[in-house]
TrEMBL record, chain A:
This is Carboxymuconolactone decarboxylase. Residues 32-96 form the Carboxymuconolactone decarboxylase-like domain. InterPro entries: AhpD-like, AhpD_core, CMD-like. GO terms for molecular function: peroxiredoxin activity. NCBIfam families: ahpD_dom.
Automatic annotation (TrEMBL), chain B:
It comes from Dyadobacter luticola. It comes from the Bacteria. InterPro entries: AhpD-like (IPR029032), CMD-like (IPR003779), Uncharacterised_peroxidase-rel (IPR010195). NCBIfam families: peroxid_rel. The keyword Oxidoreductase applies. Keywords: Oxidoreductase, Peroxidase. Gene3D superfamilies: AhpD-like (1.20.1290.10). PANTHER family: CARBOXYMUCONOLACTONE DECARBOXYLASE-LIKE DOMAIN-CONTAINING PROTEIN, SI:CH211-175M2.5. This is Peroxidase-related enzyme. Residues 22-73 form the Carboxymuconolactone decarboxylase-like domain.
Length: 191, 184
């Protein structure tokens, strides 16, 4: 049960972003820019950064949601699951492995990011903008994960919920849907 | 030196990052403006204290000292009281409600999962509303982002409290948005 009254049909972050639309507005803009804006990292690669940070913060809702988004963008389920166990074993580029390791350090603390981790990413061809965006995406998910769990929001147990959400994130990104979310009222059963 | 090459290395903390990646700057500034200076039943001084407290717990000197300085500006306190935030608010006068919200913010700094029903109940007993609890959690979570951004990219920060005096005044009274909302 969330600590404050949130709409039943909008679990996890989705209810919070509707509860407080004024504060949600710039957070949505930042997320859309970082995860879907122009970048030399693919949308799937950026979803992997969101996933590894949410996984390490043990945020069930965000991990499942961004795993689903990455899966639908990649067209397979293996990469996320392997990455969560062992970044080096994941079928991603060497540069991406180095960036995911930086993201993992950011999850612990900004101060935990080592010069060695940065140097490795640069050696493997990461640009300053890619390193910047990796750090900021990882930091942003430290915000989301704390917001979602700090308010004790509900994480649905039905995997089909996240498949639908992943599809929505692929098609619409992170901007608020123009017509809101009332059409979801019949689709989600409280878990 | 920062981990990435910034256009102006003389600019400290997040300020140096703002002109590196203008695509994300406007939204970041609007987040700070909305949370710390937007409409709320918590005063801006109270909200800046939450931001400074979380930044201190994250060991982020730039964010801690700059937001503490902004809080002092709002509260009309002497800059020497900045260090009282580190010592757990013995001299700065804060309400029991704010103390309960600062406790929640401290839990959020560790992990969202650390916030327990009893922490929420304690805040409600001191008169905190749903909205105030929400805002305290979101401000704390947001500074877990800002702190990681500032330190994760290895930016530099002036040491002395005095170096943050003008910055705090500007944050408190001019605000955080230097890009028009229309650009977003």
């Amino acid at each position: 049960m969330p600590y404050i009254p949130l709409p039943d049909h909008l679990p996890g972050i989705t209810g919070l972003l509707e509860y407080s639309q004024v504060t949600a507005h710039p957070i949505r803009i930042l997320t859309q820019t970082l995860l879907r804006g122009e970048s030399t990292l693919t949308a799937a690669e950026r979803e992997l950064i969101a996933t590894i940070v949410s996984h390490n913060n043990e945020c069930k809702f965000c991990t499942a949601a961004h795993t689903a988004a990455a899966d639908v963008l990649l067209g397979e389920h293996e990469t996320c699951e392997i990455m969560k166990q062992d970044i080096d074993a994941a079928p991603v580029s060497e540069k991406m492995k180095a960036l995911l390791k930086i993201a993992k350090q950011v999850q612990v603390s900004g101060k935990a990011v080592t010069a060695d981790a940065i140097a490795l990413a640069k050696e493997r061809g990461a640009t300053d903008i890619e390193i910047h965006d990796t750090v900021l995406i990882a930091a942003l998910f430290c915000l989301y994960n704390r917001y979602v769990d700090g308010m004790a929001t509900v994480a649905p147990s039905d995997p089909a919920f996240y498949t639908g959400l992943g599809q929505r994130l692929k098609e619409h990104g992170y901007n608020r849907l123009p017509n809101g979310y009332d059409h979801l009222k019949t689709q989600v059963q409280p878990s | 030196m920062a981990h990435i090459t910034l256009p102006d290395e003389s600019l400290p903390g997040i300020v140096g990052l703002f002109n590196f990646r203008p695509e994300t700057t406007g939204a970041l500034q609007l987040i700070a403006e909305t949370l710390l200076r937007g409409e709320s039943s918590l005063t801006s001084g109270e909200r800046e204290l939450i931001a400074a407290h979380v930044s201190y717990l994250n060991n982020c000197h730039f964010c801690h000292t700059s937001h503490a300085s902004a809080a002092m500006a709002h509260l009309e306190c002497d800059l020497s009281l900045i260090d009282d935030i580190k010592q757990g608010f013995n001299q700065i006068e804060i309400s029991p409600k704010l103390r309960a919200l600062l406790n929640i913010a401290g839990k959020v700094q560790k992990s969202g999962k650390e916030v327990k029903e009893s922490d929420i109940e304690a805040a409600r007993e001191q008169g905190a509303t749903d909205r105030e609890i929400h805002d305290a959690v979101l401000i704390a979570a947001t500074f877990c982002m800002f702190n990681r951004y500032v330190d994760g990219l290895g930016t530099w920060a002036p040491q002395e409290n005095e170096a943050y005096r003008e910055m705090g005044q500007r944050m408190a009274f001019t605000g955080y948005v230097r890009y028009a909302e229309a650009d977003l």
